[in-house]
Every structure is written in C-alpha cells, then in structure tokens.
C-alpha cells in the first residue's frame, strides 16, 4: 500500500507503507489511516530522525569496515541506508518546520 504525505510547505511524498510505518515509529508516531505531524512536533521529530540516521550510518560504517577486513577486498556495491530512505520525509519536515506547516497523511 502507498502512503502519501502532504504539506502546504512541500511537494507530496509517496512511499510504501512499511517504510512510512518505520520512519513514523522513529519519530514516535503510528501509521494510521490518517495522521498528522503538527508544526509544534516537527523540531523533536526532526531531531529523532536525524539521530536515528546518525546511528545507522555509524553502524553501517562499522559493518563495512569489518567486512573489508574479513574479505580484504573492495566492494563497489553500497547498500541503500536509512539516510537515503528517510531523506524525502526529513526534507519535507525541515521545510514544513521553517514555514510552521503541518504534515498530514491519509487525506
């Protein structure tokens, strides 16, 4: 199922429900039929998502370093991480925060 995030401050974002549910859980929200991240909640939501991205990047770097040490070879394949998956929503959240706008889904 696809979830569409909307805000007056940014273009719509469409993502799969499992990714939307994961990202919303990071910021303390649940994926219901309808929902909102109010402009008052955005600063804390942005901080939580940025912290989760930072933690994920550190874990990915450690895993790559261990993999390189074990394999002793370079790999050209770079997996898609949380930073790439979360960027559209994080960008929307930052823009909405600057413009005191809400983010809604399910409408």
List the helices and strands and how they pair.
Layout: E1 2-7, E2 10-16, H1 17-26, E3 35-37, H2 42-71, H3 82-98, E4 103-105
Antiparallel strand pairs: 1-2, 1-4, 3-4
Helix pairs in contact: 2-3
Spatially, the strands of the biggest sheet line up as 2-1-4-3
Unreliable residue stretches: none
Task: Give the number of domains.
Answer: 1
Structural class of the helices, strands and pairings? Answer: alpha+beta
Q: End-to-end distance, in Å?
A: 14 Å
List the helices and strands in order: EEHEHHE
Q: Give the count of helical stretches.
A: 3
Let me know the largest β-sheet.
4 strands, antiparallel
Shape: globular
InterPro entries: DUF1840
Describe the structure.
With 107 residues, the chain is an alpha+beta fold. It has one domain (2-69, 83-105). It is built from three helices and four strands; from the N terminus they run ββαβααβ. Strands 2-1-4-3 form a four-stranded antiparallel β-sheet. The longest helix is centred in the middle third of the chain and has 30 residues, at 42-71. The relative contact order is 0.26.
Please sum up the structure shown:
This protein has about 110 residues and is α+β, with helices and mostly antiparallel strands.
Features:
107 residues; 4-stranded antiparallel beta sheet; 4 strands
């Amino acid at each position: 199922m696809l979830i569409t995030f909307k805000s007056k401050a940014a273009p719509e974002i469409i993502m799969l429900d499992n990714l939307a549910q994961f990202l919303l859980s990071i910021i303390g929200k649940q994926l219901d039929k309808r929902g909102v991240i109010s402009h008052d909640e955005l600063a804390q939501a942005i901080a939580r998502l940025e912290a989760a991205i930072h933690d994920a990047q550190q874990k990915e770097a450690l895993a790559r370093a261990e993999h390189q040490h074990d394999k002793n070879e370079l790999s050209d394949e770079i997996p898609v991480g949380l930073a790439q998956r979360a960027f559209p929503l994080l960008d929307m959240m930052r823009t909405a925060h600057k413009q005191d706008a809400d983010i809604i889904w399910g409408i």
